[in-house]
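Lab notes, practical 5.
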Amino acid sequence: MAGIVVKKAGRILLIVLKWILQVTLVAWKLVFGVAKLFLLLFTLAAGIVLTMMGISVRRR
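Output from the prediction step:
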């Protein structure tokens, strides 16, 4: 009887840990997605400003 309780408690603990890890993964993906978007917009704005100033922005 005690073995059954321990097995069920272990399964519940694993399910809870799995959900915590999934939420953490989604949060990190969101953080990196926002950072990527910010960097892309910053690059676009910097290119426009440098073009208006007459500084050539070329890719090699």
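Observations recorded by the TA: The helical segments are 2-53. The radius of gyration is 24 Å.
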